[in-house]
Amino acid sequence: MSLQPPRRLPGVRFEVPPPALDEALPRMDIAFFVGFATRGPLVRAVAVESLAEFEAVYGTGIALARDRDTREPVSGLLHPCVRSFFSQGGRRCWILRVAGASVEASMFPVPGMLLATPREGGQGWQFAPASLRAATPGSGADTLRVAARTETLVLRVRPVEGDAEALSLSTTAAAAAQLQAGDLLRVERDGVRLHARVEGIGTSAGLAVVRLRSLCALQPLVQGSPAADDGSSWIDEAGLLHVRDRLAGAMPQLGEVLPLGDPLAPSAWFALTQAEVVETATRDRAALVELQGPAWEEADVAPLVQAWCAAGEERVAQVLRVQLQVREGSAVQALSPVLRSAPGASGLDAVFPLVAPASPDESLWLPLLDLPGFSPFVAPWPRERSALERDGLADFSWHVFAEPALAGYASDVLADRAEALLLAGGEPRPLRGMHALFGGAGAELVDEPTLLAIPDAVHPGWIPAPEVVAWEEGEAFPDPEPPAAGPFADCAAEPLPAPSFERGADPDAAGGFTLYWTDVETGATYVLEEASDPSFAAATILQEALASRYTAVERPGGSYHFRVRAVLGPRRSGWSRPVRITVGETGFVTKPWRSDELLAIHRLMLRSAAGRGDVLAVLALPAHFDRTQAIAHADALREPHPAGGPVHPPALGEDEARALSHGALYHPWLVIVRDREVLRFPPDGAVCGQLAGSALRRGAWIAVANQPLRDVVALLPAALAPDTPQRQALLDAQVNLVRNAPHGIVLSTADTLTPDAPWRPVNVRRLMALLRRSALKRGVTYVFEPNGPALRRTVERAFGAMLDLLFRRGAFAGTRADAAYRVDAGETLNTRQRADAGQFWVELQVAPALPLEFLTVRVVREGDRVASREVH
Fold first, then answer.
1. Over the chain, what is the mean pLDDT?
2. Whose CA is closest to 668, among 602, 607, 727?
3. What is the reported pTM?
């Protein structure tokens, strides 16, 4: 009799399978990058999963200085290294922007807005232009522009009662439904504007009573007002203020709110709606400008409220709300929610790039202009400090990349000291720089990364660009040869006197300057020549005109030679005495190279990685390092007693040899091309990307050497180790060489810095980090289990299954499991004394699989046959 399978009736049957066991290994593909940016949070690390996410938070790059020898710009390396990380296979990384204490945020005026803050004691108001601060410090906000739009709701109100402190208005319940507490209400009476904040609303039988607080009144300046009668300002028939004055600084922006009178105690304020240059600047005087806009001054609230309450008349009230828009270039970057009387702590959301400075709760934003659309857009106020100073990077040192209080501790106590420092105050604070690995702004940062890179560690540092002599007059040129003598002298050919240059202002920060010279005769034309050398061997004519001045704009740093002559018909003059104008390089230039800072940063990275126990520090070298310098740097990291005495942070001690296995050194730099731009950067980001991609695809125990680096087209320097002896020297020094191979640009080796051969391969260190993370992940589940034979069997079974999974995936050497790994939790380890102390020990013994570095193929001739055999 044959067995028949059970039959089922037609239909649909739902089955819910049991959830799969979570046997996934801990992630080993997440990197932690520390470096420079122009914007983004400084204390809190941010996780990003694409280059676009990185650029949205930190921008596209940062200009640092100019190279002292080549004069080429030196830029931050965080952006290109993060780009390379994702292009080589990385999927997720943490970014921590670092800067010094001098970092400063950009400040923006709010177009048409006046900030009113109550005076101490509650007597009247003090005023200032309303402003916003960049949400994150640094020069990255310099490219942003902000505009404001006022939204107006209208309702009819009638006074109930009030005084200078509070006012109650009646209106319909339907009209009051449009209001919310915190709204700004404006009522105009006899030209005076009364502003107040809505404190509360009460309704009854179809009527509503609106309670107002923070009353502030403004009245327009009129003809004859003392504030507008100082000789340089006046009120026109339309009621607009005109101010005509010499302006030494930058022209104010349309929409700015400007003070009138004493800048320290302004008597009135006006919103700029028009600006015109009446006279351009000369060498002796600043430009004469005329500014125009509506002007307002404070009015007394009490008489206004008293008169209105006595009259009891109905008035139109406006509910004023403000919305902000931020642009970068022509693209809208952010739009704020609708703001009420002033943007308090909850007014601007966390993603908006600007925030309102702290001010009292009673403060008001008073619109001096009714702006129906987002126009005009204004830039941040000019700052005296350079962009690099405001980025907090004027001083380059290892202190920027680390927590200085932890710099002196050895790797075996670093984690404990970091925890103690993290919890030392009344409120835990995130650790700075690379030490955020032990306690950042989020628990995920402490747990996730297993790769550490600091691309900007390779910079030499910088100093302010030296000052130059901007204007220097040279020796006079010989007079022209007189015309040949004849029987008659031609009076019309008499030479003109040579003009002479008059010194003007030194070149400005943008490289602009104006040349002035004397006017030797009416109607003469002046020929101005420029040359790059004082001999004027290859001079070019810049200008040939009646004008006795010439303005140059945006000249790059360098020296420029000029001379001028006059021409009037057949008459001409000799050349003037030449003048040399030197445009100084603004900003900073790099220092001569010293290895102290880089050694300090790399030592701190090795200690941090070893202190965590599951992190690999990926180290890089400056672009100019040759083979000898690279080897010397690797040896210096291993030297426990550096020449010249003790250093700080201290060198790795003889008892810290384990830390060397937590770092790998790579050189030279990589070159890629993006949008016709050549990018040069150290290889640490690409190495992290390859390690991350390999960990995701195959496992962290797989060596990544000899895999082509995507998009890399060249190396810098290109000929670091062209022959075998030089490559052998780098191999012996355990410097991982990036080199050209037939199939692409590859990492030729994957060694850590340790001299201990079993721990030298990078994949061994990564495998042990994986085991550590797996053991901690599984071990915490047994903390409160009864300490007995059942626990021992459970632990042995669980860890045995974990190691067997790794063995089957090729992480261990050997053909049998018992030769590849061992789990020991027996009585030899877990003695009675340890059990009584509440301890349970387990030892995991593994034989890591080593990468195949060299394969020898022996070619043998046997008679008339040639055979090849692998030699093991």
1. 89
2. 727
3. 0.85
